[in-house]
Amino acid sequence: MKVTLVGSGYVGLVTGACFAEKGHDVVCVDNDAKKIAILQSGRLPIYEPGLEEMVKRNTAAGRLRFTSSTAEGVEHGQMVFIAVPTPPLDDGSVDLSFIEAVARAIADSLKKYTVIVDKSTVPVKTGEKVAETIRRYNKHKADFDVVSNPEFLREGSAIEDLMNPDRIVIGVMSPRPAPLLRELYAPFACPNFIVTDINSAELIKHASNSFLALKISYANALAEICEKSGANIEEVVNGMGFDKRIGRAFLNAGPGYGGSCFPKDIAAFIKIADQLGCDFRLLREVQKINASALDRCYQKLRQELWVLKGKTVGILGLAFKPNTDDIRQSPAISLASRLLAEGVRLRAYDPKAMEKAREVLREAIFGSNPYEVAEGCDALLFMTEWDEFRGLDLARLRAAMLHPFVLDARNLFDPAAMASAGIRYRSVGR
Ligand SMILES: NC(=O)c1ccc[n+]([C@@H]2O[C@H](COP(=O)([O-])OP(=O)(O)OC[C@H]3O[C@@H](n4cnc5c(N)ncnc54)[C@H](O)[C@@H]3O)[C@@H](O)[C@H]2O)c1
Questions:
Q1: Which of 148, 172, 191 is the last residue of a domain?
Q2: How sure is the predictor about 359, in pLDDT bands with cuts at 50, 70 and 90?
Q3: Is the CB of 67 under 6 A from ligand 1?
Q4: Diameter of the chain by CA atoms?
Q5: DSSP 89
Q6: In which domain, by residue range, is 213 found?
Q7: CB of 326 closer than 6 A to ligand 1?
Q8: Does ligand 1 have an atom closer than 6 angstroms to the CB of 153?
Q9: pLDDT value for 113
Q10: Active-site residue, 278 included
């Protein structure tokens, strides 16, 4: 099938590549000419495991192309996906100007029946507004349907998530477009293809992300109780996780959730509820617990080092999670910025995110590996659970440090192993 993605970022590019991989004929559009030039030259503007090979394979096979022209994309696609940003405004509500701009650009070039599919995360009722906008600016009076198809991929495992989805949600305003979407997704053999009304589909996305964030905050609240009671958070969440009604996923205590989705989606959902006259107090509490999880990391560092100004601190892990170079709303970056503002001499390393981090942590010194970062440090902080950190030589780290203190915000290490390496060690909830 002929498919177009408008917006070629984490969602649009990976989705486009996966559609092409399944044999569809795909055009990816982006209004960032630099991004399109990079893609056309065979390189990638983002890191995602397996993506480079997949993009190369499909461009070579002629199933995947890139353009900065929305008109060209609209002309190509039987289905045009919208995958542009929906960033937060200052009050937490969603900036829908990117969505509106794309809706207008589509309306301008629409000449044949087209299914316009919103993949961006949007407030409930946005689909209705998109349809209204396209109707209003529909220059050639073309026939169309608007569908919601929220995306559940996780950065770092986006290809795996898209190729083997646990559910595909399609929200429609009439039954007409559903068979086309079914055909598009048939090669993905998804066990749960769910067709709902458009408002419910939009809500499913915000409801899901908020629930996952709630689970993380629950674990972080428990971690505080564990620290004060002498219990061990790992034992507690493992014990809870065997209950099928609860599940072990998203119960890891840490420095709080981050990334480009959870913080903004929770803030948006609170605002959406607010505008509907519902006070979502539960989610306000989730936000507070999340902020305090990061603050407790900072306080642990202060308790150990007393005065932070002039101290040398190394941060290992800058991406908001492993296997990505994405640093948007990363707890590591927030903490690093706070430390820099207090006069800390910051050293840092991340396997994939250093290029992006350099742009925001301008005063930091970046090392080419964890041992180099540890050199002369008064404290070393593990902020992202990259696998390559698990096998580090602790004795070598200790030897490099001025004062051997490790703050492990991800519970990557065995406290006993740290003790026998002669490292003072604090983690989360144990
Ligand atoms: N990143 C994730 O893990 C994830 C997961 C699920 C859903 N989402 C949602 O998907 C949407 C996109 O997120 P993302 O992470 O891919 O964002 P992104 O910033 O990585 O990519 C968006 C792309 O859209 C382009 N763009 C903006 N305006 C445009 C226009 N008028 N025409 C063409 N291109 C335009 C930008 O240049 C950018 O390349 C958001 O609503 C987000 O909440 C993201």
A1: 191
A2: very high
A3: no
A4: 74
A5: P
A6: 197-430
A7: no
A8: yes
A9: 98
A10: no
